[in-house]
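Read as amino acids, tokens; as here:

___
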Amino acid sequence: MNSVVDAAWLEEHLGDEDLVVGDVRGPNAHMRGHIPGSRPLVLGSPPPGADEATVTALAQEIALRLRRHGITGRERLVLVDRGDGVGAMPTLQMAELAGHPNVAVLVGGMAGWAGAVEEGTVELEPVREAALTPNPRAMPTFAEIASRLGDESLTLLDIRTPDEFTGRRGSPCDPRQGHIPGARLVELGDLFVGAGEPAAPERVREVVGLPEGAEVVAYCHSGSRSALAALALRAAGYNARNYPGSWHEWSRHDELPLER
């Protein structure tokens, strides 16, 4: 299963025994109307900054939350949000951090779902055992990125505005302005054709300027825009991760280099 699927794929596979649909909109929204057989799935969002120890502890906590939702890691897990990717991509990162090996996002979410819809609550069935091995690599830290500056196998994509990238203008909460050395500037709007709808893979690869399969880490100011960018990047075939700490964290470490 690819990490991005569409409504036609989900409708075809909805009855598969090994498929679980997790609705990340929250229990109330799920109760009012959801894809048949789906269950509410609330894992939280990646923290705005973390070291290796924090990431490892978080992975174990998210694994526990998955088990409470009846998720074992042996299923194919498809995440559904309202349709803009804002809810699904952070949840995907958290599930991958906990060690789930087969997670995907439904492009278009509930807004793009034309199939049947059910109402009512769904009782969760927690599980004691799960095939989840923590995967800290799913959440890049500033330490990892700093150690790989100059690594030609990794491309950093800055998903901010030109003014933020050059340091001419940025968030007043950041003590330093500029960008991570070697990062390429890519504007989020160039990766999408609509809310939560990635541009065609050929268009994304044209914008990014990298061959399919390249390793990419995206960042922005606080990890929100770059999480969405990771959706489009994965849909285009890239090995893409989101750096949730982003510039908000990087700018606070005076020992870390920057460019303008």
